[in-house]
Amino acid sequence: MAVGCGGRMTLSAGLVGLCLSVLPFVYGLDMGRAFAQSQLGQQQEVAPSFIIERYRAKAEAGDVGAQFRLGILYERGAVTGSADFLDAAAWFDRAAAGGYGPAQFKRALYFQEGIAGPKDMPAAATLYQKAAEKGLGEAQFNLALMLTQGVGVEKDIPAAIRWYEQAAFRGVIPAMRTLGLLYMGGVSRTPHDAIESWAWFTLAVEAGDTKAAELLPEVTAEMDTAALAEASRLADAYRQLRLRP
Questions:
Q1: Residue 219 is part of a domain; what is its CATH number?
Q2: Spatial distance between the Cα atoms of 210 and 122, rounded to a whole number of angstroms
Q3: Mean pLDDT within 217-239
Q4: Which domain holds residue 170?
Q5: DSSP character for 198?
Q6: pLDDT digit string, tens, across residues 87-109
């Protein structure tokens, strides 16, 4: 969705490093927790037995939502009193096979981090893709990172940008900031575009991103009045395109 290229920007050594640091495939357990349906390792009290059995009966009958929720209970230690990632993975597998997007995302995260089994990046990418196609912003962002680095999939920067945009339109703040950085510095063969960069940083700042707030003045300083006016119109258009999960 690149429109109107601004002037080529000169980045400081520190900003170049920041741009590059965003792109490696690090959106796994640490960053992924921000979007996971439940935080890995987050403990809760054991759930009442009738709740567990109700979910189990529905799950055994093929209800993918119940399968996913039962997996969450196992993950959080709400079934036995301690986290059980193996049983959680088994239920996520069943729900994912049934096409349930949140379970596909969860299972992809397990494959990515080597939880309940060895790491399997191609399997993670496949499941992220399926969840991304269902509109899960967190999966779209994770898939974009894998495409950026060629981890588990063939490297494809244009495809990565498309998924970053989809995630950003669904409110994933790191996706907004990443797009701003990509267009700011022309990282990974992305065209230098101060107008795009300004628009995405502005949306990230509006969403509360302090890192984007630090970077926005760097972009603004490179732009004239006409470019800023176009960037403002672009940001407004992107606000109207904002998708809801």
A1: 1.25.40.10
A2: 33
A3: 96
A4: 13-32+43-241
A5: H
A6: 999 999 999 999 999 999 999 99
